């Protein structure tokens, strides 16, 4: 099917204003701002999905595993027309659909309910397997995880399995703000490479570098992009 172009919606420069509309406690500000550029480039230049095609079988899927900091995600969804800007000031309120963790039943365009760290990548593996089984070879699956989230063992099982079965349509973006407890010999990318993944490590604020990493060919292998941003304080 043809996907509606969402590039005509609000632009990147409007995102700080949209994020400023979301106030209140427990915002997990650093978790949100660290993902802003990563999510924007995906929705603006890569993902084949739009407000008019959120249920299209051959759409691309984006899974926010790092769901405890969804402010940037909500801002991008509003900028791209998936949800109304008027929802943003109610962020986190009792009757608001925009909770501190996204709810796939309440947030238009959200593929999963997330926030419990370690769930997103295994769910992305399952999504990619399901699409493969249905013959939907054009649909890509993208999942965003945090570097500290990789401390969860469920991710390592997912990484190992995806590499072994060659899930080419699976893509993982790791936002690295140096908050992980355990170091990895050779860095984050080396963990994926050891399991047979294609990898790229880039500046997580450089939009062109992110785009080139996102679109790099990786035939027969899943792909991981490590996006380095400023360290979490």
From TrEMBL:
It holds the Pfam family Transketolase_N. Coiled coil: none annotated. Residues 28-215 form the Transketolase N-terminal domain. The keyword Cell inner membrane does not apply. Keywords: Thiamine pyrophosphate. Its cofactor is thiamine diphosphate. The keyword Ubl conjugation does not apply. Belongs to the transketolase family. This is Transketolase. It comes from Streptomyces niphimycinicus. The lineage of its organism: Bacteria, Bacillati, Actinomycetota, Actinomycetes, Kitasatosporales.
